[in-house]
Write a structure and sequence with these properties.
alpha/beta, 4-stranded antiparallel sheet
Length: about 425
């Protein structure tokens, strides 16, 4: 029996489950073999869609079904299809965004994918920024009935029109692609998130915002973390919320524990770390988060008919959480890509981390510090000082022919005379 194929988190769930209980799972097949058709899996029911980023299919089964799958030669890995949810709890000037705007960069033409509860597609601050949307929850549209996704969208690219510019997003000229993967209660499954992630990547986005996650520490080997790392390998910058399980250590959940994403913690206007912001290290000992951005008492767009958070007025609401910090980072990435479209996800990560303001705190609380968009933007524009060419060496003169004895005496006499 190939128990090693079953992720440890799923094995724990199987031990606690009744024999007849079905468990939602994500099954990865071996890349070296042909894809396993839904009918080829050892179960008696129809699985859900397949996912190309991690060569997997979502389905469900009893303990016996899962053990049978583990014995199938074409199956490589089985994860639990974990539940995921939203991560909740005067920021633009603090991180230097207006200084970038004054230089003409507002994220024009940069495509940002929002994988969340959807978006209020009719909000004045956002409707001109939304280019496409897709529902993965069964609601039938990506219209946000929760409020979380709309608030996040406003932080990324809201125009601030309904506030006279006061509640403007970090990259107000960026384009938004909305995937509704969480229902109007803010809940969903890993498989929904992977489906939404793949859809926004297929739309050609350069950045994906994931202000969501699962509970509990992780090591980056879960299905969603691997799907995120696979998207980064395709050239997409993935911004992920660290989670709101702080101040305990080892509290960064999936997909914040993924290796190649940029994991964002939450800071305050006073440049401290918000108490709720999840702390590292990851389960396998890596430092997380990578950097922090403002995430406490953030005012942004309010979805019509929702009352999530502290309502400011008809158009705006105040929320706190690493969910709010993460879209700040997504907006910053959009500004950097507007300045230099050739930047890779690794280069964006390096610039954000290298230019962050060190708050003098533990790395597993602050990463490298609080993000500074203007410093990162300057780093993108800075041309390295060219190394001057080495000077051309002076040719070595050919040796003089040996003097005759008479000549030698004459030279010595003249030299002596001149002194």
């Amino acid at each position: 029996m190939s128990l090693a194929k079953i992720h440890p988190d799923l094995r724990r769930t199987m031990r606690e489950a009744d024999a007849s209980q079905t468990i939602p799972v994500i099954v990865r097949y071996r890349r070296a073999q042909d894809e396993v058709s839904p009918q080829g899996l050892p179960m008696a029911f129809t699985p859900y869609p397949t996912y190309r980023t991690i060569s997997a299919v979502a389905t469900e089964g009893t303990r016996a079904d899962i053990l049978a799958m583990a014995d199938h030669p074409a199956i490589e890995r089985i994860w639990e299809d974990l539940p995921v949810h939203t991560l909740l709890d005067r920021s633009a000037p603090l991180i230097g965004a207006p200084r970038v705007w004054s230089n003409g960069d507002e994220g024009t033409g940069v495509k940002v994918g929002l994988v969340d509860t959807g978006c209020d597609l009719n909000h004045t601050d956002l409707k001109e920024r939304v280019r496409a949307s897709q529902d993965f929850t069964g609601k039938g549209s990506a219209q946000d009935g929760n409020g979380h996704g709309t608030h996040v969208a406003g932080i990324i690219a809201g125009s601030g029109a309904m506030s006279g510019g006061s509640y403007r997003g970090i990259a107000p000229a960026a384009d938004l692609y909305i995937a509704k993967v969480l229902d109007d209660q803010g809940n969903g499954r890993t498989s929904n998130v992977i489906a939404g992630l793949e859809w926004v990547v297929d739309q050609g986005v350069s950045i994906v915002n994931l202000s969501l996650g699962s509970d509990g520490s992780c090591d980056g080997t879960d299905a969603l973390s691997e799907a995120c790392d696979a998207a980064v390998a395709e050239g997409v910058c993935i911004m992920v919320a660290a989670g709101n399980a702080g101040p305990d250590s080892h509290s960064v959940g999936s997909p914040g524990c993924a290796r190649d994403v940029i994991t964002i913690g939450a800071g305050t206007d006073e440049d401290t770390i918000a108490s709720f912001s999840s702390r590292g290290p990851t389960e396998d000992g890596r430092v997380k988060p990578d950097v922090v951005f403002p995430g406490a008492k953030i005012t942004s767009a309010r979805a019509a008919g929702t009352s999530l958070g502290s309502v400011v007025d008809t158009n705006y609401v105040e929320l706190s959480g690493t969910s709010m910090a993460t879209p700040h980072a997504s907006g910053v990435a959009a500004l950097l890509l507007a300045a230099n479209a050739s930047l890779t996800p690794a280069q964006i990560k390096e610039r954000l981390m290298a230019t962050a303001v060190d708050l003098g705190l533990d790395a597993n609380s602050q990463g490298t510090g609080r993000g500074d968009v203007y410093a990162a933007w300057q780093a993108v524009h800075t041309t390295p000082t060219p190394i001057p060419p080495e000077p051309t060496p002076t040719p070595t003169p050919p040796p003089k022919p040996p003097p005759t004895p008479g000549g030698c005496v004459l030279t010595l006499l003249l030299a002596f005379h001149l002194f």
